[in-house]
Amino acid sequence: MPEFNIKHITKYTYESLVKDSVNHIILYPKEDEHQKVLKHDLKISGKPRVDTFVDYYGNKVGFFTYSERHRELEIYSELTVSTTAKEPPAETMFGEMEWTEIRALRHQVPYIDYLKWEAFDGLQELKEVTGQNAEPASTPYQTALNYCTFVYEQFNYIQGVTTVQTKLDEIWKLKAGVCQDFAHILSQMLRMVNIPARYVSGYICPNKDGMRGEGATHAWVEAYIPSYGWLGLDPTNNCIANETYVILAYGRSFTDCSPVKGVYKGPSSHKLTVQVIVSYDDGITETLDPVAEIIDPEPEIPAGQGNSYRRNLELMQQIQQQQ
């Protein structure tokens, strides 16, 4: 039974004094038969009162206001969690029966919201991919694994080419991104073949295996498999999300699961720094680098400019079109 101590430090630094900072936080880990919270400490600059409620998706959400003038806001969350492995679904020969059960979920709560997929420019291409990978003889479980592998193999894991606001159109065009982009594409694919899929926010605690997604919160997908339930799939690492994953929140996309978001009165320019530190039950502490630094709001980039990955991709596309 793995046990993890996780420190999640979120720090806003403003260019000048701000006030009336109203914030919405989802930093409370889930509790169920496979995940137990042994301790959770939450410290916030100014020591504001934090009111909590449970949202539509079953997430515990904190809400607070920091009214005094300030140049920095730090939210420090430290938790100790124990997890247990969940047996994966068993292989079955009754794929047709499972697909029939899957189709019957389209009008049932809570699956309705997790079946809505998004229209975007690359939709026809993605339909062709899902059609090729969802063989009639495959079960929903096998199909979900195939899609997870497809995203892992076809998309490049590159930090900095996308933001949390990046749409499916651009992710599909770039064929690159980070964990939330991989999760958004996989959930779209699953929903297109009627498999309910929910976006999951949390932490990956790989016990020094060097997996992708370390350094801040991680994102993956849970697919609903008949006669089993929700199965965690991590397309960033092409594996089943099990006892080394700590769950914070569920939702349709990142928007529903953002760990920290809010508004304030003051200048728009500020810096957000996020750091995650994991201590394992063997007493070894590991600081997960790099520290994520984001300027928010993201500055507008003139046409033809942007990061080098985008520029090189556009150049290659132009060359291919001229050939």
From TrEMBL:
What GO biological process, any one, is recorded here?
proteolysis
Domain (Transglutaminase-like) ranges? 171-237
Give yes or no: UniProt keyword Transcription: no
Which InterPro entries does the annotation name?
A: Bac_transglu_N, Papain-like_cys_pep_sf, Transglutaminase-like
Q: Which UniProt keywords apply?
A: Hydrolase, Protease
Q: Where is the signal peptide?
A: none
Cite a single GO MF annotation. peptidase activity
Q: Which PANTHER family match?
A: BLR5614 PROTEIN-RELATED (PTHR33490), SLL1049 PROTEIN (PTHR33490:SF6)
Name of the protein in question: Transglutaminase-like enzyme, putative cysteine protease
